[in-house]
Amino acid sequence: MQTSPPSEKATHAAMITPKIVSPKDWEAAREQLLVKEKALTRARDALAAERRRMPWLAVEKTYTFDRPTGKASLLDLFAGRRQLIVYRAFFEPGVHGWPDHACIGCSLGADQVSHLAHLHARDTTLAYASRAPQADIARLKARMGWEMPWYTITDSFDADFGVDEWHGHNAFIRDGDRIFRTYLINTRGDEAMGTTWSYLDMTALGRQEIWEDSPEGYPKDRPYKWWNWHDCYVPDAAPDPKWVAVSDAGEAAFREGDK
User: Fold this and answer.
1) Chain segment 208-259, per-residue pLDDT in tens
2) Which residues does 210 contact at the CB level (< 8 Å), separation at least 6?
3) Residues 11, 4 contacting (CB under 8 angstroms)
4) Nearest to 126 by CA among 107, 135, 141, 113
5) Are 212 and 220 in contact (CB under 8 A)?
6) CB 220 within 8 A of CB 206
7) 194 near 210, Cβ under 8 Å?
8) Among 70, 39, 32, 195, which Cα is nearest to 124's?
9) β pairing state of 178-186 and 57-58
10) Is 0.90 surpassed by the pTM of this model?
């Protein structure tokens, strides 16, 4: 019989596991916990609704970034969309891993980033920013398989938005050429970031669906209907009728199960 090495035995205490139960008892335990999970989901929705009512802070200062094609302003980072999320990643001299890797934590977060087409469909851009030169950023992205736009900070942007010493996501919205800061998520809050939903929930406009508690006049669509395959989004196109039927049936089933 194969045994564990002595060093492993010495460092791992015996694991005290939960009790083993019947299928009926397991389902009962799961149903009991599900009540708390649903309460957590509703609390998370309520928190996102409060974010959508946060006051906006006008960005009056001019910021300049480097990109592969030259200089870029903060307005350029929006890429023509209405909303922008900028994640301050640590990749620069003095950071553990330099020059081959970015910060381990920031890299784990970058690995979690969902396909950007879904954010773009909600008029939202995600960008990364670091102090590393563009040549190093291009090399890192190629090595790690990352595709998000990644800019070089050249001024006090990180200090002005609370991410000069620690990572964080800043959300912005624009009205024409006017830019406003709407929210900041950092430290352990960054652990949950990476999905389309986590990004949209931190923005001023949210998921832009009719079930959300949003201020009057905010953009709203029926849930599920704006979803598409990431290579099939067409601006202002009507949803696929077959998908409408499928999602309507699913939505009705979800409502029935939530009673």
Assistant:
1) 999 999 999 999 999 999 999 999 999 989 999 999 999 999 888 877 766 5
2) 220, 221, 222, 223
3) no
4) 113
5) yes
6) no
7) no
8) 195
9) antiparallel
10) yes
